[in-house]
Design brief:
The longest helix is centred in the middle third of the chain and has 22 residues. The protein folds into two domains: 120 residues, Creatine Amidinohydrolase, Chain A, domain 1; 232 residues, Creatinase/methionine aminopeptidase superfamily (Creatine Amidinohydrolase). The chain is built from ten helices and 18 strands. It is an alpha+beta fold. The chain is globular. 31% of the residues lie in helices and 27% in strands. Helix 6 packs across helix 7.
Length: 359
């Protein structure tokens, strides 16, 4: 089923005539990977899409139109362009939607907000998207491996972030999230923006990389010198939690069942309350998480979805991006040659990365 067919079905379910798309993630999904952002931190991009049962419209200005046509090839893909001069209002969307009942992917006057439904739709990836995710994840894994093995004591967190950013962009991937913490900051903050703090022995590197609209997430940790016993215990425990969540992420299960499996695994390893200190992840796609798992998210897991779970115990974390397939889960962001632990969960054996220890 094409994206337009899926949107048409959504419109029929809500008795609507057209869908307005402005968010960067939805724009990329609807156009099979086109980039509508200039500022990488923005939510809404520089193009607006209108999709009806019969037509696909793109409204943008004369700055952006040439790139959408020549590089993103949206005219070739059947999008009808409505271009206005950058210093003048368009008016095209109002004319095209006159008399229509509309849905939108956010706040728009008179439209039904379908952002939640679209987030779920985005998580159902077709075969081409799954292949794109494999290529993206391999590049993110390679960038992480290259960067983290170049980390040295005495570097500050900005320098470590530069290593990771450079390796990621050199591979053709845009790093949209880079979190770096060293030593005590790993224990103090779940979302550590890099600072001037110099590393002594221990570093955590977190990457969310975007390519062709899709986003892969992974975390790795490196420690110089022997691991303290307490840290080793926590690292083994968080790997077990992650393995339990990955093992539970199977077709026929629901998202909240995976969440509960994670909570149970935390308790089994003696860290029952740690899940309360940070979200545990959820389905990935055109955002790092299309939505976050909780006890109340009773959404079925389907083959072809991608998930990124990220359990953490104060001082360590485990995170990879996985593809759910009928015959098992594929860890897309695995790093070849990285030290790993095989964890048995029922009849499954899940490989989880260990902390890289450098003597």
């Amino acid at each position: 089923m094409t994206k337009q067919e899926r949107i048409s079905k959504l419109l029929e379910e809500h008795n609507l005539d057209g869908l307005i798309i402005q968010q960067v993630s939805n724009f990329a999904w609807a156009t099979d990977g086109a980039a509508s952002y200039i500022n990488t931190a923005t939510t809404n991009g520089v193009g607006t899409l209108l999709v009806t049962g019969e037509a696909k419209h793109l409204i943008t200005d004369n700055i952006e139109s040439p790139r959408f046509e020549k590089e993103e090839r949206l005219k070739e893909s059947g999008w009808e362009f409505h271009t206005h001069r950058w210093d003048q209002p368009s008016g095209a969307l109002e004319k095209l939607t006159k008399g229509m009942k509309l849905g939108s992917d956010g706040s728009y006057p008179g439209a039904v907000d379908l952002s939640g439904e679209l987030a779920l739709l985005r998580s159902y990836l077709d075969a081409a998207e799954q292949d794109r995710f494999r290529r993206l994840s391999a590049r993110c894994a390679g960038a992480m491996d290259k960067a983290i093995r170049a980390v040295k004591p005495g570097m500050n967190e900005f320098q470590i972030a530069a290593l990771l950013s450079g390796a990621t962009q050199s591979g053709g991937v845009l790093p949209i999230v880079i979190l770096i913490a060293t030593d005590e900051r790993i224990y103090n903050f779940r979302h550590p923006l890099p600072t001037n703090k110099k590393m002594d022995k221990y570093a955590m590197l977190v990457l969310c990389g975007r390519m062709d609209g899709l986003v892969c997430s992974l975390t790795r940790l490196v420690h110089f010198g022997p691991l303290p016993d307490e840290l080793n215990e926590k690292a083994e425990a968080v790997s077990y939690v992650d393995a339990a969540m990955i093992a539970a992420t199977r077709p026929g299960k629901s998202v909240n069942e995976v969440f509960r499996a994670g909570k149970a695994a935390y308790a089994q390893r003696g860290f029952a309350d740690e899940w309360q200190l940070h979200h545990q992840g959820g389905p990935a796609g055109y955002d790092p998480r299309e939505f976050v798992a909780t006890d109340s998210v009773d959404v079925p897991i389907r083959s072809g979805q991608v998930y990124a779970w990220n359990p953490s115990i104060t001082g360590c974390k485990s995170e990879d991006t996985i593809l759910v397939a009928e015959d098992g889960n594929e860890i897309l962001s695995a790093i070849a040659g990285w030290p790993a632990k095989s964890i048995e969960i029922g009849d499954q054996v899940i490989e989880r990365p260990e902390i890289l220890v450098i003597d």
